[in-house]
Amino acid sequence: MLRRAIASCTKQTIQCECIVVDDASTDETPAVVSEFPEVRYLRNPIARGHSAAANAGIRAAGGEWIKPLDDDDWLAPDCIEIFSRALQSASECGFAATSISGVAMQVDQNGRESGPARSPVTTPSAVRSRDLLALMMLDEAPLGTPVQVGHSRKAALAAGGWNERRPFAHQHGDEAEFWIKLAGLGDAVFVPDVVAYRQNWIGGSQRSIAHWERYRSNLHLKQEIASALHRPVPESIQSYLALHWALVSAKELDLGTAMRLSLQWMKNPESAAHLLERHSFRHAREHFHPLTMEPRPNRTR
């Protein structure tokens, strides 16, 4: 998988620097990386976690923009080209972007494409910083996972990087917390193109985290957004989160957590409407500013 990920970076239509951060692996990572002499290789002597590895790559990078990539995912051949063109257009339109996001094609463990994640983006668009934070509060900002996001190196350093001490299992939510930091420092750009492929695994690390822990992590993220907006987390959002995780817990037969969270969201039953409304991305569409870009050439995977 690592070989595939690295190759997808070295074969971009626009040349880019490629850095591999090895978090003290015990597999054949050094041998695989050695097949790519153009790649810069960094290795942590002891495992420090996902956030620390991301920060090491950011510090070592020489470019103005960073495209994170986990070793089991891979990029579309023109990912960097698409992002570069969109960022140039946004700059010409007066936006000061600190992050950019495209669409990730979901791929199951048998290699079958199961389709992209839902997104309100139909044309290259930009969103102002404060509007982006408000959409994050509503879960309507389609920034997604690291495989589909790029960010400014300067903004990352100004934000203090990824939180290496996030107080949740497996640093759950570390990428979302980082996106929140970046949103407080600038605008965001979104493109409707498939820029990457995300490998999904049955029983992945996220599923090993207790539902209550994931709920607490999500609530903590809302508190981070609220702090950036200088206001408290709305009660309707707190109830919506409780409802969401109550439903997830019940579906996965964690009935104790489902009951515990149900008692919370029932204090504000109107929050159920938001659970349905968020999938329409109504608020997001109101704040997206279309960008003018030339159509990109057709490509094959």
Description:
The chain is of the alpha+beta class. It has two domains: about 1-205 and about 285-290, Spore Coat Polysaccharide Biosynthesis Protein SpsA, Chain A (Alpha-Beta Complex); about 210-275, no CATH class. It has twelve helices and ten strands. It has helices at about 1-10, 30-35, 50-60, 80-90, 130-135, 155-160, 175-185, 210-230, 235-250, 255-265, 270-275, 280-285; strands at about 20, 40-45, 65, 75, 95-105, 115, 125, 150, 185-200, 290. The strands form two sheets. Strands 3, 4, 5, 6, 7, 8, 9 and 10 form an eight-stranded mixed β-sheet that branches. α2 links the parallel β1 (about 20) and β2 (about 40-45). α5 (about 130-135) packs antiparallel against α8, α7 (about 175-185) runs parallel beside α8 (about 210-230) and α9 runs antiparallel to α10 (about 255-265). The longest helix is centred in the last third of the chain and has 19 residues, at about 210-230. The mean pLDDT is about 90.
Write down how many β-strands occur, each being a DSSP E stretch of 2 or more residues. Answer: 10
Class derived from helix and strand content: alpha+beta
List the helices and strands in order.
HEHEHEEHEEEHEHHEHHHHHE
CATH fold naming of the largest domain = Spore Coat Polysaccharide Biosynthesis Protein SpsA, Chain A
The rounded Rg comes to: 19 Å
Q: Based on the coordinates given, report the CATH architecture of the largest domain.
A: Alpha-Beta Complex
- Major sheet description: 8 strands, mixed
Basic shape: globular
CATH top level class name of the largest domain: Alpha Beta
Helicity, in percent? 40-55%
- Low confidence ranges: none
Content of β-strand: 15-25%
